Each structure stands twice: as structure tokens, then as C-alpha cells.
TrEMBL record:
<dbReference type="Pfam" id="PF00004">
    <property type="entry name" value="AAA"/>
</dbReference>
<comment type="subunit">
    <text>Homohexamer.</text>
</comment>
<dbReference type="GO" id="GO:0005524">
    <property type="term" value="F:ATP binding"/>
</dbReference>
<keyword id="KW-0175">Coiled coil</keyword>
<comment type="function">
    <text>Acts as a processive, ATP-dependent zinc metallopeptidase for both cytoplasmic and membrane proteins. Plays a role in the quality control of integral membrane proteins.</text>
</comment>
<keyword id="KW-0862">Zinc</keyword>
<dbReference type="Pfam" id="PF01434">
    <property type="entry name" value="Peptidase_M41"/>
</dbReference>
<dbReference type="InterPro" id="IPR027417">
    <property type="entry name" value="P-loop_NTPase"/>
</dbReference>
<keyword id="KW-0479">Metal-binding</keyword>
<dbReference type="InterPro" id="IPR011546">
    <property type="entry name" value="Pept_M41_FtsH_extracell"/>
</dbReference>
<dbReference type="InterPro" id="IPR037219">
    <property type="entry name" value="Peptidase_M41-like"/>
</dbReference>
<dbReference type="Pfam" id="PF17862">
    <property type="entry name" value="AAA_lid_3"/>
</dbReference>
<keyword id="KW-0812">Transmembrane</keyword>
<dbReference type="GO" id="GO:0016887">
    <property type="term" value="F:ATP hydrolysis activity"/>
</dbReference>
<keyword id="KW-0131">Cell cycle</keyword>
<keyword id="KW-0132">Cell division</keyword>
<dbReference type="InterPro" id="IPR041569">
    <property type="entry name" value="AAA_lid_3"/>
</dbReference>
Length: 614
């Protein structure tokens, strides 16, 4: 059936080209004369000479007539040379033609006349085949829309990633090492009646190493490894995705035992029936075929499916059930130990200075993924090369850390003294607030040098990784966020737009305390709003809020009370520590940047700048 469609396609192309060339050949040139006009001029005795060729003749008129001039050579086409010569002889006998000449030749075969047109069509078809092959990724299959685009890597290929290259995910590696071991030594599992999982779903935020784990499995397995993206199944043509799924599993079964890795499976595995309106859904047909291939009536022994996604909440339940994806491996953000191990892996080929402490870097990068940490060391290496250094020092790593978080410092930006003073007191307010109220954070750097969209920046790092946050710690975060605005009002007597982002952060924390964490005084242990903040069309359309206007007013009042209490407390604390606030702001105005040890010294002993020697 597929071959018939392909042949039909080329026949249609051939017919279109033939019609086009015939139309092109029928277009008259300025020197052409219609056969009917020639007969009219011949009967009128206005033809002075005719030179006969195979299927055309050159005609010269003795005097002008209509559109034709005298003494000008025109071309007349005819179908039969013999009939045309008989016509000329008859006109010559009757005295209507004074002169004609011809070479009597046999009429050539029709296919010889069509040969140039056939050659052009063949060249066009050849070019079209070449073009389609290139757009489909090469290969020897013409118009292979329904063929799988999976790339196969086997033990002979150079898959350089091993489990030793994956750090900070020991438990995740153990889950996948078990599958690799089963493929290498299935006997000890079969003897105990164990069944290897048919599918393993890697779930986690972007950059945590899901694809890297899959590459490590490919490097360690020693069996054929097919890799494909979820979006490669989806096409504009109906039925192509399902055909590609069938072709992928056909290839996998021929090479069993093997592993099939589908990256970003949410592109094809999204929940069915989630769209508004009816009609045929190509993606749903592709998903149905994937479900059948993973666990249907057909035998699918020796094919293990690995898949990765950062959106498990939108996957279809039929895809998630045991028998399809038996095992779910959550690849989460690495902890402090994991970050240190990841830094060791990415710093193998980088010369580090003696002052570089990877454990300290891991402590100052909470929430960083493996991709973030690799980018951090790469940025540090680029900064060291820019400074013509031979090794990467702690200075470059710290500078790269702030560059990744905030963007590059804009030291060339011209700032007025008034704005500089406002920024200094604002950032000093944040720093003093961290020092006074936070039980988990300590100041790492305070700067009034603009970077990114911020006019200044106060960086603070946690003493240790936190997996849970208490109510008092959330209130501390709100007080720290409001410290900058409180300092502005306390010292300058007015507030500015510089605290806009701080207010958004404080309000979001306070609202989450009431609506998500049940930390309200009057609405205790109640959660408001849907689990999904975004509208899932066709599933929860129009059901965003599940509480009344009265409850909404109470939530707003609770949020305002938390914000007001936190603001009053931090303003009171800054008033009590006014001198410390002044010292930190003065140091920022002079130095523009204060590191952790300098801040601690100023907080304890005040700011005493050295007297310049005259």
C-alpha cells in the first residue's frame, strides 16, 4: 500500500510536468505564423518563398498583411510533411506560389521529439527524490514519513558517558544499574522468578540530569540503545506518528534485548481528552499506538523503555500504570553533598587554584541543578581566561556565581549620588535584616553595583540545606524582603520603586502561608485554590477558585496582617540598630561592595575607614 502511494505520487508529478511543458511549447513566439493564416496568405498569392523542414517551414511574404510584415521570415508548424508539400505543389501549379524549396525526409519517431521533455521530467524527479531524502534525514528510504527517526547506539559506538560521570544521584543510578545488570546477566533474576520493569520514567526539574542518566545507561548497557524525542513522533500528516511508533518497536524487537529512550515524552503522552472541541487528534492516535506497543496483545520481550519528562502531572494515566512504566525514578535537585560531587566531576579537566573549596561552593549554591553547576564552573573558567590567569581561583567562581544569578555587573552605568545613597541604605536594610532576624541565612555579599535589572544586590546563603520551612522562618523571609523598604522610609523619609520585587516576594510568601500551607489564624488547616495554578483546557476550564467572596476577603485580610506585622517589626529593629545601618550604608557608598567577613566586622565594630596619608 505504501509503495503504491509512492508510485502514485511520482505519476502525478510526471503528468503535471508533462502538461506544463506542453503548455510551454504551445506558447507562440513573435516569429511564429498560425497555420490558418498561412493558408489564407497562400490562397491570396502573398507567399513569395517557403523553405520546408521536418515539421515546420520558413515563410516569407511578398507584401504586408495584417500582423505580418513583408520580406520577414516566419515559422509555420504542421503535423505531416507530405500533406504540407502537396499543398505547396498545388499552390505552385495554380500560380499562387512563386518559389519553394524543401528537403524531403522521413518523419522522425514521436518519441524522439519527446526526448528533451522526458529528460527534463527525469531530472526534476531525481532532484525531488534527493530533496525529500535530505529533509527526512538522509537514508535510502524515499518519502519515509512513517519511518522512525530513532538513532541507535551500540557497544561499538563511542558513548563516552558512564555512571562514574553522573554524580549527586546515587539512588537514581542504583535503580538504573539494576536494569543494566539484568540485560547483562538475566539468568540470576529469571531463576528467582523476577520480571524486569518494562518501562522506567525519569521525572524531575529541568537540568537535574535525566538525559545524562539515560546516556550513562547507553554507555554501560553494551546492548543496542535507541534514542528519540517525543516531538519526533508528531507530524502534520495523519497517521505518521503511529506509523513511526510501530517502526520504532519493530526495530527494537529485531535488536532485542535493547533499550529505547524517549526524551520529553510529555510531547506525545499528554492526557487524552484535554482539548476543547472535537475532531481527529493526531497526537492521541500516536499515544494510543504507544500504549499498545508498550503493553498490548503483542509480545514485547527484551525491550525496555526509558523516558524522561519534567511534567509528570500532564501524562495520561494509562501510560503511567504498572506494565507500561513500572518504575518511576525522581531525579530531584541535588543536596549539598550531591552538589559537591557534581562539582568534582565538572572540575576534572579544569585547573583550580589552592583557595578553591568545592564544599564551600556547594554550600553557596542551594537549588542549583547539575546543569547550573557545570555552567557556573564554565563561566568561572571564561572569567579566569579573560584575566589571563593559569588557574581558576575562588574569586572567579564567586563572581561567576553572581553573574549566573543576577547577570553581569554594569560598572559603566552612570548613577546620581541621590540614587546611589538610596540604593546603599536599601541594601544595608536587607543585610541588617538578615543578620538580625534570620535563623538559617547569613550575609555573603552586599553590593550597590547594578547587575541585570537590579540596582544593587544582597546575597545570603543558608547554613545547611532545608527541605522544610517553618512558619517562623517564612515570617523571617518576609521581614528580610521588607528590610530595604523599611530602611528607605526610616532614613530618607520616603519610599521608592526599588522595592517592587521585594514586595512581590513578601506578598507571595504571605499568600502561600494562608492558601497553601494552612498557617492562618482564623482559617487554620484549610487550603484554597486548585493544585494546578494554570488552566488545563477541557479538564478544569472555569474552575480556578473553589471558595467564596467572603473567604477571599478573609484571605486578603490575613495576608495584610502578616505583611503589616512583619514590616512594623523590621522597622522597629532597624530603628534600634540605626548606627549599624548607617555604618553599612557608608561602607557601601565608599567601597560599593562588601564581602561576608567585612560585613560581619562592620556589624560588630562599626565602620572606621583608614585615614588617607597626606
Amino acid at each position: 500500500m505504501k509503495n503504491f502511494r509512492g508510485i502514485s505520487f511520482y505519476i502525478i508529478i510526471f503528468v503535471i510536468m508533462a502538461l506544463f511543458l506542453m503548455m510551454y511549447n504551445n506558447i507562440s513566439n513573435p516569429t511564429d505564423m498560425k497555420y490558418s493564416d498561412f493558408r489564407k496568405e497562400l490562397d491570396a498569392g502573398n507567399v513569395s518563398s517557403v523553405l520546408v523542414r521536418t515539421l515546420n517551414a520558413d515563410v516569407v511574404l511578398s507584401k504586408p498583411s495584417g500582423l505580418y510584415a513583408a520580406d520577414f521570415r516566419y515559422t509555420v508548424n504542421f503535423l505531416s510533411q507530405e500533406s504540407f508539400i502537396d499543398l505547396l505543389e498545388e499552390a505552385y501549379k495554380k500560380g499562387r506560389l512563386t518559389n519553394y524549396d524543401f528537403e524531403k525526409k522521413a518523419t522522425p519517431p514521436w518519441w524522439l521529439e519527446m526526448l528533451p521533455m522526458i529528460a527534463m521530467v527525469v531530472l526534476f524527479v531525481f532532484f525531488w527524490i534527493f530533496f525529500v531524502q535530505q529533509t527526512q534525514g538522509g537514508g535510502n528510504r524515499v518519502m519515509s514519513f512513517g519511518k522512525s527517526r530513532a538513532r541507535m547506539a551500540n557497544e561499538d559506538s563511542k558513548m563516552r558517558v558512564r555512571f562514574s560521570d553522573v554524580a549527586g544521584a546515587d539512588e537514581e543510578k542504583a535503580e538504573l544499574e539494576e536494569i543494566v545488570e539484568f540485560l547483562k546477566e538475566p539468568k540470576k533474576y529469571v531463576e528467582l522468578g523476577a520480571r524486569i520493569p518494562k518501562g522506567v520514567l525519569l521525572v524531575g526539574p529541568p537540568g537535574t540530569g535525566k538525559t545524562l542518566l539515560a546516556k550513562a545507561v547507553a554507555g554501560e548497557a553494551g546492548t543496542p540503545f535507541f534514542s528519540i524525542s517525543g516531538s519526533d513522533f508528531v507530524e502534520m500528516f495523519v497517521g505518521v506518528g503511529a506509523s513511526r511508533v510501530r517502526d520504532l518497536f519493530d526495530q527494537a524487537k529485531k535488536n532485542a534485548p535493547c533499550i529505547v529512550f524517549i526524551d520529553e515524552i510529555d510531547a506525545v503522552g499528554r492526557h487524552r481528552g484535554a482539548g476543547l472541541g472535537g475532531g481527529h487528534d493526531e497526537r492521541e492516535q500516536t499515544l494510543n499506538q504507544l500504549l499498545v506497543e508498550m503493553d498490548g496483545f503483542g509480545v514485547n520481550e527484551g525491550v525496555i523503555i526509558l523516558a524522561a519528562t519534567n511534567r509528570p502531572d500532564i501524562l495520561d494515566p494509562a501510560l503511567m500504570r504498572p506494565g507500561r512504566f513500572d518504575r518511576r525514578v525522581v531525579v530531584n535537585y541535588p543536596d549539598i553533598k550531591g552538589r559537591e560531587e557534581i562539582l568534582k566531576v565538572h572540575s576534572r579537566n579544569k585547573p583550580l587554584g589552592p583557595d578553591v573549596d568545592l564544599k564551600d561552593i556547594a554550600k553557596t549554591t542551594p537549588g542549583f541543578t547539575g546543569a547550573d553547576l557545570e555552567n557556573l564552573l564554565n563561566e568561572a573558567a571564561l572569567l579566569a581566561a579573560r584575566k589571563n590567569k593559569k588557574v581558576i581561583t575562588m574569586e572567579e567562581i564567586k563572581e561567576a556565581n553572581y553573574k549566573v544569578i543576577m547577570g553581569p555587573e554594569k560598572k559603566s552605568r552612570v548613577i546620581s549620588d541621590k540614587e546611589k545613597k538610596l540604593t546603599a541604605y536599601h541594601e544595608a536594610g536587607h543585610a541588617i535584616a538578615v543578620r538580625l532576624v534570620s535563623s538559617t541565612m547569613k550575609v555573603d555579599r552586599v553590593t550597590i553595583i547594578p547587575s541585570g535589572r537590579a540596582g544593587g544586590f544582597t546575597s545570603y546563603k543558608p547554613e545547611e540545606d532545608q527541605h522544610y520551612t517553618t512558619k517562623s522562618q517564612l515570617v523571617e523571609q518576609i521581614m528580610v524582603s521588607l528590610g530595604g523598604r523599611a530602611a528607605e522610609e526610616l532614613v530618607l523619609g520616603e519610599i521608592s520603586t526599588g522595592a517592587a520585587n521585594d514586595l512581590q516576594k513578601a506578598n507571595q510568601i504571605a499568600r502561600d502561608m494562608i492558601t497553601k500551607y494552612g498557617m492562618s489564624e482564623t482559617l487554620t488547616n484549610l487550603v484554597f485554590g486548585d493544585e494546578n495554578d494554570e488552566v488545563f483546557l477541557g479538564k478544569s476550564y472555569g474552575h480556578i477558585r473553589n471558595y467564596s467572596e467572603e473567604i477571599s476577603a478573609k484571605i486578603d485580610a490575613e495576608v495584610k496582617a502578616i505583611i503589616d506585622n512583619a514590616y512594623n517589626k523590621i522597622k522597629e529593629l532597624l530603628t534600634e540598630n540605626r548606627q549599624k545601618l548607617e555604618d553599612v550604608a557608608r561602607a557601601l557608598l565608599e567601597k560599593e561592595r562588601i564581602e561576608a567577613d567585612e560585613f560581619e566586622e562592620i556589624f560588630k565594630n562599626g565602620y572606621n575607614p583608614p585615614v588617607p596619608v597626606s
